[in-house]
Design brief:
The chain is mainly α and 223 residues long. The chain contains eleven helices and four strands, in the order ααααββααααββααα. The protein has one domain. Helix 2 packs across helix 4 and helix 4 runs antiparallel to helix 5.
């Protein structure tokens, strides 16, 4: 796995720009993991896929992940910061729950049911083993599905600094990482524009430059 910097950052952005949401995570991972085929990545469970995304995010933007959301109790702005390494460790330490009649959902499964009139039921039936038997109720299937896929959601518990209410939220690492990636692309394009305008360098030569050196040239080029 390689961090998404320079040309790789642009490649991941270009791959994901027109990708539907259900393939967005795979698009980012495919740019970072050229030796892993699309089929291999698509067959990762959602928890495994998001664990790989967290690793890639840490390699690309660092270990600290921060954001903000409104408190549901009082509406105050609630800022948070969490270590990506902590989230990865939590995923690794989660018990590997299994069910004989149900398997964990993958990105391939999500893609297959996206146009179904009842995607959740279609996902249950797709992950249900043929060994379940005709008397296996849909309610039981849903219980097993939720139990073995519970680590597919990254949950955060955040205390409000104003009213002390505990805010529970789910971190969608796919959308979060993609938003950061788009912001980084815009910033890098601006740097390329400034340096190309100031020195006449090509995009390729600017992107291949060490970021620390590029920052110094930017300071010199700016009035």
């Amino acid at each position: 796995m390689r961090p998404l910097t320079g040309e790789l950052l642009f490649e991941a952005w270009e791959r994901g720009a027109n990708a539907p949401y259900h393939t967005l995570a795979l698009s980012m991972l495919a740019s970072a993991c050229p030796k892993r085929g699309w089929d291999e990545l698509a067959d990762l469970s959602i928890a495994e896929r998001d664990g790989e995304l967290l690793r890639l995010r840490a390699m690309t933007f660092g270990d600290r992940l921060g954001g903000c959301l409104p408190c549901e109790a009082c509406g105050a702005r609630l800022e948070f910061e969490v270590a990506v390494s902590f989230l990865i460790e939590n995923l690794r330490s989660a018990p590997a729950l299994q069910a004989h009649t149900m398997r964990r959902a993958t990105s391939r499964d999500l893609a297959a049911v996206r146009s179904s009139p009842d995607p959740r039921r279609a996902l249950l039936m797709r992950c249900l083993s043929s060994d379940a038997g005709e008397d296996f109720s849909e309610e039981t299937a849903a219980e097993q599905f939720n139990r073995i896929n519970e680590d597919a959601e990254i949950r955060l518990a955040l205390p409000c600094p104003v009213c002390s209410a505990m805010q529970h939220t789910v971190l969608d690492i796919v959308r979060f990482f993609w938003a950061e990636l788009r912001h980084a692309v815009k910033k890098l394009l601006q740097e390329v524009h400034e340096l190309a305008s100031a020195y006449g360098w090509s995009e390729q030569s600017i992107l291949s430059m060490n970021p620390a050196r590029r920052a110094i040239y930017l300071d010199l080029a700016r009035p």
